[in-house]
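> call design_seq(struct)
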């Protein structure tokens, strides 16, 4: 072999990862070839010893002869196959940067056959299978499965006619083996008794451990076998098994294959199986060797070995791969290179392959490709081809019962609801979290938000008295007005004022000097500095009783000079309110002592009893409705999107959909189960908020509870959308977080909508929590009932959002396929 030849062998080393019986097979004997001429010398191949056909293989050959006949490919004949794929094109990625997986692939799986789908890792086997089971769509081409197009009404595909074992385990870790099999049995509408019988049989067949063992505690191989049992439980017409024998010991592998051979004997069950153990497929009826988006060959194993003069199936595959590497894209030309040097048997009945050119590309008996190649002038036939052609039996039309058209099937709902309850209660940590979180959030909210800040440090510089304490002494019961002359002699009013201020804010700090007090305040030692002039009371008296003779100095010295730290709006607002109210209270108290009407000293704006709400409005009551709804909404988002994503990422969702469950059923089963959790969450939040922490509740309790629950339902449906849109937990987290923050900011929860920018006000009104928050607020604080527009608009808005989210998720589940 020359240097270039070595280079070529390097190029086929990608096949080194091809496993045979779990071992690397890079040492397979390759025919010598000349890279320059891109031809292959079959000298070595011809020198190979003749293939010995075992008794089993002879039996299989005999069966194949009886079962599978060659015929013309018409729509009718395609429908009679178990699976028929024609001109399948499938690509991932964008149109500009496509990753072509299936490139005009044809595949024919006759009923009653075991079809071994072989190909290197990443060649597209799983993609092809998921197109067959209707979970991915081809970009072009057609697929017939059991006489119908996957996904068409009445085809039964996806549905119980198929048993699908995906590559990943796709089982619920918390379930026992028995529960897992009951779930899949129920989905297939099997009576529980039949499921139990079948479980016993499968446990023995697949040597599964005690059926009460939880799936998560099984070994990898045991989990795969449980997954296989789930595909076999309902004895489907078409079994699609994606690498069922990985991690299975050789003895058990053989018994699995024996079982497959056994169930296909009657011709009622068809099996498509992918495996990396090429050798085990010698028991298959047909092997499809996939590479580069199409089949290198689609033949019986013995025929493959015979025709390509290989030592084994692996050998054949390597030869075909090398030829394809050399640029032979079409199977006919690949085969030509081989058969030019291989002696062919005589053809006793050439008319059997006399087919129209137009049909050549899709000739389809069980060995359609042989015919295709033969029509290219290469007389390549298999012994099976020579068998007389018999008409296929008329096809049974799929029955379309009323049930076909029902959006939800009872047995599906039974299985799903049971499964959802079981997984919820098995996951105690998650359940405790789901119930504990809203409770803790509500406690935190009620204890932390909306309360009056107390103990704010206030620096006092009082030049009116000579005191070392902020609170100076004064005669509390002394009226400074002469009862006879009505002359005033106001003294130490600063002390009276500070006394009343200390009842509101009791952290007064004395300073002798204003400059020092200001310096300390600048260092953050106090939130405000109050300065009283030396003649404060005297000036104040003059300002009130003799304004005509008051000058600017009188006004200035009668002011309480306040220097505020305005960095915190809430604190500044509450402190300035305290400073003013303390003054009013001190003056009113003085009026009382002097037997004057108290209100004479008040600011002449009188606040009567409020129309709605409390005399002293509190922020907790304002924010409460929004916070309650936000907690309920986003917990439901987390709960639903979390469980749906977990189900999807573990492959369980895919598997359930292939078994015939619809997106609508999955969503509604989650709604039913999670609704229970949500009602519990809502009730706990309401009890805590209103009974324990005393938030204002004037409205109808029933409507309040109902609005809270449907807001949770709305969050749940939003969670469905998130889980349908996002492929990973990370993107789901981003989307959930990305919607949480704007919702909190824009739904009028922490700031009145009227204070927002005009455009944002409009945005705010279409968000799901805005109208419902306003509605809840109106019910709780105003006591309004459902007849009020601002109340019922919240219910309408929430219901509309539920409908939008639910429809979106059903559509996404239905149409978002690869
Ligand atoms: N959803 C997807 N998006 C983009 N590319 C994908 C997607 N699914 C599969 N692929 C790519 O398509 C190719 C075929 O993948 P597929 O899983 O069908 O291969 P396979 O033959 O089943 O491999 P294996 O034997 O390792 O399971 C791979 O290159 C894979 O990376």
């Amino acid at each position: 072999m020359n240097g270039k030849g070595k280079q070529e062998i390097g190029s086929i080393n990608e096949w080194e990862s091809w496993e045979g019986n779990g071992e690397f097979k890079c040492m397979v004997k390759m025919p010598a070839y000349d890279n320059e001429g891109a031809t292959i010398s079959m000298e070595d191949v011809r020198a190979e010893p003749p293939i010995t056909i075992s008794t089993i293989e002879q039996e299989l050959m005999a069966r194949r002869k009886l079962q599978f006949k060659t015929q013309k490919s018409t729509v009718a004949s395609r429908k009679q196959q178990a699976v028929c794929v024609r001109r399948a094109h499938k690509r991932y990625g964008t149109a500009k940067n496509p990753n072509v997986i299936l490139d005009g692939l044809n595949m024919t799986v006759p009923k009653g056959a075991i079809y071994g789908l072989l190909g290197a890792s990443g060649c597209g086997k799983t993609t092809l299978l998921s197109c067959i089971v209707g979970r991915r769509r081809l970009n072009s081409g057609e697929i017939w499965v059991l006489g119908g197009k996957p996904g068409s009404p009445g085809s039964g595909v996806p549905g119980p006619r198929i048993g699908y074992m995906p590559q990943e385990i796709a089982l619920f870790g918390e379930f026992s083996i028995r529960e897992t099999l009951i779930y899949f049995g129920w989905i297939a509408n099997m009576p529980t008794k039949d499921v139990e019988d079948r479980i016993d049989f499968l446990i023995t067949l697949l040597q599964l451990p005690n059926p009460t063992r939880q799936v998560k505690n099984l070994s990898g191989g045991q989990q795969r076998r449980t997954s296989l049992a789930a595909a076999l439980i309902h004895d489907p017409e078409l079994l699609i098994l994606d690498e069922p024998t990985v991690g299975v010991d050789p003895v058990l592998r053989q018994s699995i294959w024996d079982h497959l051979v056994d169930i296909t004997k009657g011709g009622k069950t068809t099996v498509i199986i992918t495996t990396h153990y090429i050798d085990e497929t010698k028991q298959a009826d047909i092997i499809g060797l996939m590479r580069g988006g199409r089949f290198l060959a689609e033949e019986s194993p013995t025929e493959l070995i015979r025709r390509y003069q290989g030592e084994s199936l692996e050998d054949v595959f390597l030869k075909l791969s090398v030829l394809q590497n050399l640029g032979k894209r079409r199977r006919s030309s690949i085969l030509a290179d081989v058969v030019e040097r291989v002696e062919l048997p005589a053809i006793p009945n050439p008319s059997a392959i006399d087919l129209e050119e137009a049909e050549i590309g899709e000739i389809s008996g069980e060995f359609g490709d042989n015919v295709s190649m033969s029509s290219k002038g290469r007389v390549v036939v298999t012994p099976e081809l020579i068998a007389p052609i018999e008409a296929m039996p008329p096809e049974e039309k799929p029955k379309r019962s009323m049930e076909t058209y029902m959006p939800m099937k009872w047995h599906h709902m039974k299985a799903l609801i049971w499964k959802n309850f079981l997984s919820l209660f098995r996951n105690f940590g998650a359940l405790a979290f789901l119930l504990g979180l809203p409770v803790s959030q509500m406690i935190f909210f009620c204890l932390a938000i909306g309360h009056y800040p107390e103990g704010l440090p206030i620096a006092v510089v009082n030049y009116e008295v000579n005191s070392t304490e902020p609170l100076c002494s004064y005669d509390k019961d002394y009226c400074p007005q002469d009862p006879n002359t009505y002359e005033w002699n106001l003294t130490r009013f600063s002390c009276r004022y500070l006394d009343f201020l200390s009842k509101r804010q009791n952290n007064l700090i004395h300073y002798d000097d204003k400059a020092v007090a200001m310096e300390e305040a600048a260092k953050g030692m106090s939130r405000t500095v109050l300065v009283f002039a030396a003649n404060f009371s005297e000036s104040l008296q003059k300002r009130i009783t003799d304004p005509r003779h008051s000058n600017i100095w009188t006004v200035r010295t009668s002011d309480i000079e306040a220097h505020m730290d305005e960095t915190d709006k809430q604190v500044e607002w509450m402190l300035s309110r305290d400073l003013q109210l303390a003054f009013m209270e001190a003056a009113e108290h003085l009026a009382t002592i002097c037997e004057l009407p108290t209100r004479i000293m008040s600011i002449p704006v009188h606040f009567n009893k409020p129309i709605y709400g409390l005399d002293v409005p509190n922020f907790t009551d304002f924010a409460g409705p929004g916070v309650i709804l936000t907690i309920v909404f986003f917990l439901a988002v987390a709960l639903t999107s979390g469980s749906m994503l977990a189900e999807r990422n573990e492959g369980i969702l895919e598997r359930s959909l292939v078994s015939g469950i619809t997106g609508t059923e999955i969503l509604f089963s989650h709604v039913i189960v999670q609704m229970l959790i949500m009602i519990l969450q809502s009730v706990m939040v309401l009890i805590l908020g209103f009974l324990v922490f005393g938030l204002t509740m004037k409205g109808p309790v029933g409507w309040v509870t109902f609005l809270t629950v449907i807001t949770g339902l709305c969050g749940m449906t939003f969670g469905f959308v998130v889980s349908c849109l996002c492929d990973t937990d990370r993107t789901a987290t981003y989307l959930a977080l990305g919607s949480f923050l704007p919702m909190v900011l824009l739904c009028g929860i922490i700031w009145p909508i009227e204070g927002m920018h005009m455009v944002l006000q409009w945005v705010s009104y279409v968000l799901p929590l805005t109208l419902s928050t306003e509605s809840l607020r109106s019910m709780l604080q105003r006591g309004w009932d459902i007849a009020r527009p601002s109340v019922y608009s919240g219910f309408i808005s929430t219901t509309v959002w539920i409908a939008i989210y639910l429809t979106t998720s059903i559509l996404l589940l239905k149409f978002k396929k690869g």
